[in-house]
Amino acid sequence: MQHRRRKHTVRNTTFIVVLLFLIGGSAYGMTRYRSIKNAVNSSFNASGITKERDVNKQLSDKKPISILLLGTDTGALGRSYKGRTDSMMVVTLNPTTNKTTITSVPRDTAVTIPGFASQSPSKINAAYAWGQAKTTIGTVQKMLNIPIDFYALINMGGMEKVIDQVGGVDVTPTLGFTYEGYTFKKGVKTHMNGKKALAYSRMRYDDPDNDYDRQKRQRTVLMALVKKSGSISTLLNQSFISSLAKQTQTDLTFDDLTSLAQNYRSATKNLKETHLQGTGKELNDQSMEVMKKSELQRVTNFIRNGLSLSYKKTGSITVFSSTNSKSKSRSSSSSSTGTNATTANSGTNNSDYGYGY
Fold it and tell me: What angle do CA 313, 325, 290 make, to 5 degrees?
């Protein structure tokens, strides 16, 4: 059964930008897109990694593609920005099957980051801080044995701008709480501006399911925003795109987005979501998420199926959990009970852990 949870509001913004081009293409007209070409291309920043596939051919042949969405909650996004990503999501767009998949990866997933084995195990969100997009893409590819065709990184401020630009969103909270000066009542439909929506999306430590349920709330905000398709024309203007571009880095060019708008719009008709589910562990004096090998394989299969790729074993750099350890653990959610793990370089009992070979 697929896990129907999660995601981070930051990365949601980038996905929304992609969706705006996909959904709004026919109604808005490609002529108007060209008027904002320079603004869109100003956010271009090559990843520096050698792509596993010919991404230009993938687009021209209308083949399935993948996009790694990253989010940061740290200040204004400058070109020299370095920091840990708060969120990570793999999106696949398949115009042949008319399906889009979204797979969320916990930011605390325990891995060995390529090029930084001496610091293993590490949280996956350190990959961007240590090697930016190049290292992050390489880490995700090796962790799940999947190709990443493009990436996009966006600052939290971008999400707030998008929500405000469409006049806010309507969300029915699934949990009652007060956070950052806002009070949310469970089951009561609430109109939220950008700041309030972010507050709803960001609360973590007072939630019984911690980060996993937070990501579920973030997904709800995203879908509420996508539903406001009638407001898309208000978003696609040069001043707004110029403002949003300052919050974004990506190796998707304007021409790439134009191709998506022309040829991949049908893929957004069917959306499937999942997340990588782990168990919380204290490793190297840090709280990390450790995965079962079967869970890693499930997610690998999910993404590869979304790309219409054949079966392959999951990657080999993730710390995975053992079922026989006596080490203490904290449950990340109700679906991750009964597993125990530590890791190779943590100085603890090596029989309790492994890597995802």
Answer: 45
Of 154, 7, 146, which Cα lies nearest the Cα of 66? 146
CA-based torsion, 156, 162, 167, 172: positive or negative: negative
DSSP at 291: B
CA distances from 338 to 215, 290, 322, 330 (A): 23, 12, 9, 10
Structure tokens at 182: 């806002």
CB atoms near residue 187 (< 10 Å)? 9
How far from 165 is each of 74, 76, 228, 234, 297, CA to CA, in Å?
A: 21, 19, 11, 7, 40
**Tokens 């997933």 -> residue:** 109
99-136 per-position pLDDT tens digit: 989 898 988 999 999 999 999 899 999 999 899 999 99
H or E segment and range at residue 226 = helix 210-226
Tens digits of per-residue pLDDT, 1-52? 444 333 343 334 445 555 554 444 444 445 555 566 776 777 788 999 999 9
